[in-house]
Design goal:
alpha/beta; six-stranded mixed beta sheet
Length: about 550
Amino acid sequence: MKCGEKHEKDIDILVSQKLSNSVKGYSAVSVLLVKFNAKLTDLRQQESGAAPGRPQSAGDSDRTSTTMVTALVTTPTAVAVAITVATAVTATASDVATGYDSSRCLKLGVVEFPGFLRVRQTPHSGLEVSGTLTKVHTIIASALNTCVEYEVPKDGLFGSQLDNNGNWTGVIGQVSRKEVDMSGVPMVLDIKRRMATDSSVWLYMDERVLAYKQPVPEADLAGFLKPYTTMMWCMIILALLAVYAALWLTQLFEVQLLPHTPDSFQVEATAGQLVKRESGTAKNSVGRGRRGEDVVWTSCLWSLTAPLAQSSSWWPRGVSVRVVAGVWLLMALVFSSIYRSNLKAMLILPRVSLPFTNMEELLHTSIPCYVPQATVLHGLVLAAEPGSQLYRLRQQMIAHRNVRKARQDTLRGKHAAFSTRLAILSILHDTFAQTRSCPLYMASADVFGGTSYQLAFPKGSTLTHKLNKLLTRLQEAGILKHLYLQGIRHASGCLRSMSATNALSSTTLRPLELGDFYGVFSVYGGGMFLAGLTLLLELSIGSYRH
């Protein structure tokens, strides 16, 4: 084994041990790897006969970076792999720091961005900035051999153009006025923002989506009516009335055709008993008298008892009456069986419909929609052409700068949210970590397709070219995506539970509440009231006759 290879192997082993013992010190590990990289370069130059101080060529630099990454990706944990690749990239970025004034900290303009940065102003410790993007800031500061200083714009906005003179608000205003060295938060840079600032390479890809509180099964007063639609109930009621009329007419028809005995009465089989009725009354009182009252009562009785699966004290007589009664009995059996089956299925696996699944359906509702103020999306809504979807969204749009309030109102169902997919995933992650639930759903169809996030630099800034190479390597190595996914790891479970159709199945059991029985109790109470009223009418009519 050659001397250079032996030293290289010792260095690789030492680096792996350092990363396995501690994965928290990004800056320290970055500086350590830069020193190891320089030492490894000197050993290779000594082995090849070159002077240690000779500048390294581009090919040597690429081979050094490849060796470092190949040797260090064997670290045991996924986090160590991510940090190793990131610091190996910064080790080859020594030329990035060339010409940068490291005597002062790197000023970054930041605002609250769910999923990336959390910005809080506390009375004791001052400004507190946290989130997955702070690790990227640390890597950049390590490459530039400096520190990081955060600046929050007074309005707390990303930035919108005030007038045509180039005056901007928010972070874009800070960058355009060179109050900060760069933006510390990735943004969508449209044509107007690009005219005011320089942009970096793209860091993340995202899409704009609609989000709203996920509906859950709740107690429903009219839940016992849900197995059938309104049209189906109307058809059943019409069928019941038709059967009642058919039974009434067929019974009257049978009465007219029945042969009568020569004596003064005929015998009728009713519930197994013999009842004497005067033949004259049965023949002459059509719809009136004792026989007419029996026809009305028996028709109503059979029409109602069959669908309710109740016994009847009247048996149909005659071929025509039996045909009508038999057909209705079969239809009622089908109706009642399907009703009970559907009601049982709704209780076992309740399904709820989503209020909307795309922008067009949202516009047909009265649900307000939140749009982050002073963003590119907000500008698109304000500049939309009349008649377009975004133009019609103005009537339902709510725009303000309080991100935390908008998040809470969205979770409570006060309004929908028109934002980016990454921001919604961050809300799902935080909510699941606290409550172990996924209260939001995202519309299945995105609104405007994909978009990219970039960092903004002042016009003519030397940092643009210097950091683009570093950011490109971080993006291509997967470090940026790894860090972000690590910060929203709980959102993956919520994405799996979301349904792609227009309905959601509740996977959690919900105990029945008293409100679930209010509808049935109301029907029972209404029936008892009608029965009592009928009893009072019968008593009144009977006493009047006597």
